[in-house]
Amino acid sequence: MAKTVTKKNVKVLENGNGVAKTNRLSVLKTYKIYIGGKFPRTESGRYYELKDSSGNLLANMCLSSRKDYRNAVVAARGAFGPWADRAAFNRGQILYRIGEMLEGRRAQFVDELMQVGSSKLSAEQEVDLSVDRLIYYAGWCDKYTQIFSSVNPVASAHFNFSVPEPTGVVAAIASESTGVLGLVSVIAPVIAGGNSIIALASETKALCAVSFAEVINSSDVPGGVVNIITGKEDELYKHMSTHMDVNSFIYAGSNAEHFKTIQVNAADTVKRVLDYSKVEWTSEKGQSPYYISDHQETKTTWHPIENIGGSSSKY
Amino acid sequence: MAKKKQVEVDLNSDWGYSPAPESKGHIKIKPQYDQFIGGKFVKPSNGKYFDTINPANNEKLSSIALGSAKDVDKAVRAARKAYSEVWSKLSGKERGKYIFRIARLIQERAREFSVIESLDGGKTIRESRDVDVPLAANHFFYYAGWADKLEYAFPNKKPTSLGVAGQIIPWNFPLLMAAWKIAPALAAGNTVVLKPAETTSLTALKLAELIKDSGLPDGVVNIVTGFGDTGAAIVNHPDVNKVAFTGSTGVGKIIQRAIAGTNKKCTLELGGKAANIIFEDAPINQAVEGIVNGIYFNQGHVCCAGSRLFVQESVYEEVIRKLKHRMNTLIVGDPMDKNTDIGAINSKEQLDTINKYIKIGQQEGAEFYQPACKLPKKGNWCPPTLFTNVSQSSRITQEEIFGPVLAVQTFRTVDEVIAKANNTPYGLSAGIWTDKGSKIFNMTTKMRAGVVWANTYNKFDPTSPFGGYKESGFGREGGLQGLSAYLNLN
């Protein structure tokens, strides 16, 4: 089985035939899922095998069930209110912290991406871009409100303003083609905007999705704000889109039939549905404050203005 | 402290008002109306018409063309042709000038529109005159100015029009809803196929006449009339790029399902069950006016009506006493009379629905109150209705009634009322009454609702975005935010 060992700060990939470059038997990681700030295996006890290009077993990944997803929604709903109430500045610091943590584990992520088929160059580019994207959204946390807010000059004697507020619990099916970038690109804008999220990671590149959950877990992100499950889109997309306590749905997969079913199911509770299936996450179009506003509701507040006396503001 | 005896005005004494009916003399309603397609009034392809009646006396006002899928197709073709040949080629500045013209023409004919709105829909002339019609004109005037300024609305984006917008509107604010739909669509460069509700087609068709007068290029606005299946034909038409719907959550869900798998952009403005919350430090007399305005405005036919009242326990008795007293003074009757507070229920069907819920409320054990008011013999009427002692799970608390029926609950703490107020699948609006500013902002941020009125209720303005959270729909109408529903942001 291929795995990584750290040796003098350099990661070395062992080959599958057990020709180790050290005499030490390395410790293998059990890949888990991430729900409510904890790392359980799937409640179903099921797994799917992730193999490298030579057919060697990389890991027995959790084949998450409907029940895992439901547990994740409960965790996300519980985490949503307190997360939305955090100061925008605080959310920004936490997103920045995620970026820091990912940067620190850059080599591990590059390595894991290479194990699931990326070239060294593209793996490095993907991890670097993922870190930069987290920093990008960290910076937006206390700014998008100003961009998307308005004071509305109503004709009556009222002070009237509109601000964006988070939609709530967001479910996402992340892009299949990237291990970490697609995941970061859907999670970061959603939580920057004060929502909580349950993301289904890329099935075939799930290794570093779980490692990304570890990054999240060591970044002061409260448990339940981000939940990451692994498994099969085929099995989960219907359950994910019919859940009554999910407010918004991101589809970044590539199956048009699945997407249509998701849209139909979403109508049961008038979920917002975002089609990210055509987004090139590696391009500049893969990041924008409009991905934050996709999961914001506009709240408009009215308040009377008492007009005492006759003096004008020009006095 | 000894309880003071409450002195109340005997309304059966000489406190009555003399009749003050608005004149209908100058109003021309044709015996029959056709659909407005491609700049012409076109007979329905099946040759059928349906009656539109005055709900205040159940007399027929006119016959309205019964649009079919064939007529919808004709209208969409006209809209597409107008879009690709004329409207999309016109500069924003020129588009804006047409929309300004429409606003001005509505202002010029405001009285006529108010009278027809009240005749056809049953709402009081006071409301159609002071709210619906001026707001409709203002909405056109507001969005007209956006037409050549779209690039300023969305930083770093290049907004482009969508194409043909299919729009379906309800019967509670017929002309105003037409304005909310048509004005931003045109400003953003789209053409329109609009269907008014079957019980209130008249002002939309009058608007069509006015649009013809404005010189707007043929086919830019098309109006088809009919029932739900006519609306379905708009939603399902393959050449419609955008669906905008205001109406019930049930129909909204059907529409959301119907357009799955298409690239149609969609905004839904659906039902509500708003919490109107009275704290003990509120100005109680103002709050009582706010409660009345919240639930009895427009006969309660308002998606954002304050239909769930929450009163802090310490002021409960005072609020209910004053509310009942105020309810006793409300005048139910002829919508054309300028003194009338509550007009006619829009249709027999809606009256049946309201009465069904009133029966449910009584069966569920809530305490029921209606003032003894004289109702006209003919027409559809419902006195202002109050249910106290309702439970959180009661159907009259959970379901949208769309009538003058208020369900009252009490609370002790802020946390309790936040939990209760948000305990609904809806999230369109809310009201907060307290004298304390910091409490207002705590409450307004905690309400999961798109519009929150603090120490006021049921206020609307073209610059103010309106729309819901959760199952009250998505997208906003009004303001800068209302433009995005009609644009691609590239």
Which fold name is given in CATH as the topology of chain A? Aldehyde Dehydrogenase, Chain A, domain 1
The percent range for helix content of chain B is 25-40%
Low-confidence stretches of chain B: none
SSE order of chain A, one letter for each helix or strand? EEEEHHHHHEEEHEHEHEHEHE
Going by CATH, the architecture of the largest domain in chain B would be 3-Layer(aba) Sandwich
Number of DSSP-assigned strands of chain B: 20
CATH superfamily of chain A, called what?
Aldehyde Dehydrogenase, Chain A, domain 1
Biggest β-sheet of chain B: count, sense, barrel?
A: 7 strands, mixed
CATH superfamily of the largest domain in chain B: Aldehyde Dehydrogenase, Chain A, domain 1
- Oligomer class: heterodimer
Task: Give a short summary of the structure.
The complex is a heterodimer of chains A (315) and B (490). Chain A is of the alpha/beta class and 315 residues long.
Describe, in plain words, how this protein is organized in 3D:
Chain A has one domain: Aldehyde Dehydrogenase, Chain A, domain 1. Chain A is of the alpha/beta class. Chain A contains ten helices and twelve strands. Helix content of chain A is 39%, strand content 19%. Chain B folds into two domains: 260 residues, Aldehyde Dehydrogenase, Chain A, domain 1 (3-Layer(aba) Sandwich); 180 residues, Aldehyde Dehydrogenase, Chain A, domain 2 (3-Layer(aba) Sandwich). In chain B, helix 1 packs across helix 7 and helix 3 crosses helix 4. The termini of chain B are far apart. Classes of the chains: A alpha/beta (315), B alpha/beta (490). The interface between A and B is large, with 36 and 47 residues. Strand 12 of chain A pairs parallel with strand 18 of chain B, so a sheet runs across the interface.
